[in-house]
Write a structure and sequence with these properties.
200 residues, mainly alpha, Helix Hairpins, minor pseudopilin epsh fold, 3-stranded antiparallel sheet
Length: 200
């Protein structure tokens, strides 16, 4: 079964004015689609063709002969995860278990935002900012290029894409503004809560 580009969980213009329909058109329709197309071409006729995306990511990570497979598989997964991390009229404050965990492990919502922004903005070059569960605690991390928590044996809870194509049409070189907008107006805390509640 060939991998397919998952539809967005909302219309392309649903995140305006924070992320434009034009950005979503390029980011989802071209960049994400390109990773799907590349992955299908790379795994065609190999055992990986019948593996899940997650299994491909885990088995190809740190295998220098499968760098292309890993990069494209991880980017397909990362982008699908990223779309779900956002929603129209998002942001605000979390509630329930995720709010308690952020208070316990990050020092509260304001401190979480400060630390997450520092990690995402400070990621040199292309990459991702993450909130992960690792060993029963929340941690804030950043990864370069396609690397994700799944590859590192962690559970992804939230991510912000800081590849330039994620924000350049709307924010130019102002990555800090993009990340702050993501934190204040776009986070889908329901999705983050669901990820925390999943059995590991």
């Amino acid at each position: 079964m060939a991998f397919e580009l998952p539809p967005l969980p909302y219309p392309k213009n649903a995140l305006e004015p924070h992320i434009s329909e034009r950005t979503m058109d390029f980011h989802h329709g071209r960049h994400h689609q390109a990773y799907v197309t590349n992955l299908n071409n790379l795994v065609k006729g190999s055992p990986a063709e019948n593996q899940s995306l997650e299994d491909i990511i885990k088995s190809s990570y740190r295998d220098s002969s499968k760098t292309g497979v890993f990069n494209n598989a991880a980017q397909v997964w990362n982008h699908t995860f990223f779309w779900n991390c956002m929603k129209p009229n998002g942001g605000g404050a979390p509630s329930g278990q995720i709010a308690q965990a952020i208070e316990r492990d990050c020092g509260g919502l304001d401190k979480f935002k400060e630390l997450f922004k520092a990690a995402a903005v400070g990621q040199f070059g292309s990459g991702w900012g993450w909130l992960v569960a690792d060993g029963g605690k929340l941690k804030i991390t950043a990864t370069s290029n396609a690397v994700n928590p799944l590859a590192e044996g962690q559970t992804a809870l939230l991510t912000c894409d800081v590849w330039e194509h994620a924000y350049y049409l709307d924010y130019q070189n102002r990555r800090p503004d993009f990340v702050q907008t993501f934190l204040d107006h776009l986070i889908n805390w329901d999705f983050v809560s669901q990820n925390l509640a999943k059995p590991r």
